[in-house]
Write a structure and sequence with these properties.
- This protein has 302 residues and is mainly α.
- The protein has one domain.
- The chain contains 11 helices and 3 strands; from the N terminus they run βααααααβααααβα.
- Helix 1 runs antiparallel to helix 5, helix 4 runs antiparallel to helix 5 and helix 5 runs antiparallel to helix 6.
- It has a 3-stranded mixed β-sheet.
């Protein structure tokens, strides 16, 4: 009942199926050849002249169709049924579909990782709850026993013995209370393919985040910052990663952005929040793609 306060939750073989489904044998690459990562100001100025909104222009850059849209909309409407224009139109739709699938793909992987973390968090909290119940029971027993002994010794005139028992019992109760406060339960979570690490490290060539999504996240805004910059700034909150060089960063970053480690309930909650924020930012790309599709239909209904 009163064993040490630090516990490692043993692996649960029944959880292996979820882990195998989430972690793919190899990252899914979605290369887009001949698509520049940096936006072309001249092309995008032309898109704005043609009537596209900023959200649509951002989506066009992400899926790699900015030049093709200019090419299609620059053709007179009477000539858009010619083979060349039709090929461009089909190319546009194919790229937009690929971008939509890229968003869905990474979103589903983030969902799966969230479920892995939630399942492990449930197990960790279960161990913590059971230990807390045992410690509470022990505190009740110690308190009742101390009261009975001190009362009995007082009745028979053993004042000194009564005081000694009272002090010892009080100290033991305090120890049980501290044990509940500093309870530490951890479990291992392996993350060989870690999308959070890719966001944090910003590699020149991403392998987990699909290229269209990566272009969307790393596109500079009017102030020069990117969505990736804003996301990492949110992660820098004191209750998540913390400021550069802080104790929180030194403790949490190696585990959260590594290939696995021992996670406490607090760390699992932080990981869940980071994944939720990443998923929310990526989800904005779906909205931009829908805006692009709607505006293209308005400009070139067919």
């Amino acid at each position: 009942m009163l064993t040490g306060c630090s516990t490692t939750v043993p692996p649960d073989p029944t959880r292996g199926v979820l882990a195998r489904m989430c972690v793919q044998d190899a990252p899914i690459r979605m290369p887009m050849r001949n698509v520049p990562d940096a936006p072309d100001p001249a092309v995008e100025a032309r898109l704005a002249e043609l009537g596209l909104s900023l959200a649509a222009i951002e989506a066009a850059h992400a899926v790699g169709v900015s030049r093709q849209i200019v090419q299609l909309l620059s053709v007179p409407a009477s000539q858009r049924e010619r083979p060349g224009a039709l090929r461009t139109y089909l190319y546009l739709n194919g790229r937009i579909l690929a971008g939509t699938l890229a968003v869905s793909s990474i979103q589903s992987e983030i969902d799966c990782e969230n479920e892995r973390g939630d399942a492990l968090l449930l197990r960790v909290r279960g161990v913590m709850d059971r230990r807390s119940q045992r410690l509470n029971l022990a505190a009740i027993i110690v308190g009742a026993g101390t009261a009975a002994l001190t009362g009995g010794l007082s009745v028979i005139g053993g004042a000194v013995s009564s005081n000694v028992v009272g002090i010892a019992g009080g100290g033991l109760e305090a120890g049980l209370g501290l044990a509940m406060q500093f309870d530490h339960v951890a479990a291992e979570l392996r993350t060989p393919q870690n999308a959070l690490a890719e966001i944090w490290n910003r590699p020149a060539e991403p392998t987990l985040i699909p290229r269209p999504v990566w272009r969307y996240l790393t596109r500079p805004g009017s102030d020069g910052s990117t969505r990736l910059d804003s996301l990492i700034s949110e992660w820098r909150a004191p209750d998540l990663i913390g400021e550069p060089g802080s104790d929180a960063e030194r403790e949490r970053a190696p585990i959260l952005f590594g290939t696995g480690g021992m996670y406490t309930a607090e760390m699992l909650e932080v990981r869940d929040e980071l994944l939720d924020q990443l998923q929310a930012v990526i989800g904005l790309m779906s909205r931009s793609i829908r805006i692009l599709s709607a505006e293209l239909h308005d400009l070139d209904p067919r």
